[in-house]
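Predict structure. Input: NACHT domain-containing protein, 461 residues.
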Amino acid sequence: MHLLMGLLMNTEEALLFIEKLLAQQGYRLNDLERAIFRGAWQGKSYKEIHRNYNLQVSLDHAMRNVGPKLWKLLRKALDEPIRMKDLQGPILRAYAALAASPAVAAEIPPEVSPTMPDSLTSAPIVSWEMTPDVGIFCGRNPDLADLREHIDVGGRLIVILGMAGVGKTTLAIRLAQQVQDQFEVVIWRSLSVNRYESLAALTQDLLRVFGQLPDEPPMSSNYITNLWHYLSRYRCLIVLDGLEAVLQTSSDTGSFQKGCEPYGELFHRIGDTYHRSCLILTSRERPQELANMGRGEHAPVYIHPLDGLGEQAAREMLLSKYDLEGSEQAWSLFVRLYAGNPFALNIAASKIHDLYEGDIAQFLEVHAQETAIFGEIRSQLSQQFTRLSPKENVILTYLVKAGEPVRRNQILHNIAPRVSNEDLDQSLQSLMGRSLIQRNNGHYSLESFILEYAQELTNNQ
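Output follows.
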């Protein structure tokens, strides 16, 4: 009987059947899980599935995490042991048992095409308000794969952290576009553009989008409770771009501005409580509220530091927009001059194209004598430096004067005014969280173009 039913139930029919079973338990498969199920139903190994379906995660992650989680879900739904190599038997038996039961036979279409609930099969509700055009996307595929993997394994709070202009917004947009079909509601909001005066104002905006769902609206006077009503009942993806807009300036603690403290309460609830939604944040600074929340390779809270582009990716990005020429050495010096920062590289490349006939070496020769910090590059750095605390400024001034990488104890004993060990650690952690300093082999230093701007500020004091 199983052989005959196996011939009649193809891969997609089997997938639809188990999706209906899992939906009854409130779970929806993601694309990665569907790919593994399809391959396993056809008798393929993990290695064959990884190759044939072009999975966006490592083979090891698929074998150790995604697959075992899927078989555990099916074991619970079918109430019998499930093995990858013997997948068809338990599923066909479950189908046969349901089909033989008069009480539920009518629920299974004769074509074996069970459907998901309307809220799961229809296109997601999408609200992309003030979302910029990402344009060329280069060199970020490893970052994209890492972030998708964390969403696939149930990441609930993801923070993309990096300095101004490094490409956080572009990466977040591309990520949301790639995973949006896994969600029922997808919302993008820019905190720096919209300038919500409080979480209550943001929540009121989000609830207008959630109002499109076929659900009775919550009636609580607590706006976080009202928002949680939807985040816990539906699979929602919310992207908040530019979190630093609601963080305090002149502080190295990553604290929220007055009136914005409830953001911390929301983040804790999202990170610490089980649900199927996901909140993605982009920020130039690390919020203090996330410091003690559970993190790890596959933890529900994940902070993804974003560095500058590599030389090849930066070159590909710039040549898609500008007619530039230069030797391998010139390209390498140019990209390293701006630490691979896409925003700074684009501003400089535009100047090279317009004023230096596309000659990178000529630009480097001129700016070896003059500053390479100009125009919008200076404006971006000014915005970031304005947010520094007095202690952070003291540390940066010392790093500029030192002129070389220094150890922590050197900073502790030589900066003036002196600070405690605790204050020093807090400020160093904050500066690294802002991507303004780097640490290699226990030594702290500044990226070249940040060093140049900091020297300007020091000389003008």
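Residues 59-78 form the longest helix (20 residues).
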